[in-house]
Design a protein that fits this description.
By secondary structure, the chain is of the alpha+beta class. 36% of the residues lie in helices and 19% in strands.
């Protein structure tokens, strides 16, 4: 089992074996998913990140009351 410590600022060092397995480099983005007291860490592909950010902006226009009234029963 790989381990690391948590600093007072909530920071930790990702063990070298994990950095190598995920091909992590300085500046890479990570995502975290929590499942029953366990955390899944994933490297975010820059293109995936840009896609999700742009998708979120585009879908924001569908968050009106009129949309809820029109499409709420789908």
């Amino acid at each position: 089992m790989l381990q690391s410590s948590l600093t007072q600022k909530g920071q930790t060092t990702i063990p070298v074996q994990i950095r190598q397995a995920l091909n992590l480099k300085s500046g890479d983005r990570l995502s975290y998913e929590i499942h029953d007291h366990e955390v899944l860490i994933k490297k975010i592909d820059p293109l995936d990140l840009l896609y999700h950010q742009s998708l979120g902006k585009a879908l924001g226009e569908w968050l009106t009351k009129e949309d809820d009234d029109a499409f709420g029963d789908l």
